[in-house]
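Render this sequence as a predicted structure.
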Amino acid sequence: MGTVYLLHFVRPLGDLSNPRGQARHYLGYADDLEARLEAHRKGNGSLIMRAVKEAGISWELVRTWKGGRSLERQLKRQHNSPRFCPICNNPARRGGKGEL
């Protein structure tokens, strides 16, 4: 069994004038989480993480679940990663704002 994980980007990636044209999270799966995170740090492993690296956007691992690719797909189908993110759901870490 592997690990499903959620990365939170420090700032959005994409069209900053369009809230629907931005990404703030990456939800993925890994058999070896540390190796996968190292690949992301180098800009490898996925197109979005390559774009994050090229844009100079930092990120942090904010949540993990024990599970396989079926759990990853189940979470991705919800299209709502911010709901799972402890940073987006903690007003103190967002600067005290009560909205996402």
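Summary. Strands lie at 2-14, 22-30, 59-67. Confidence is low (pLDDT under 50) at residues 96-100.
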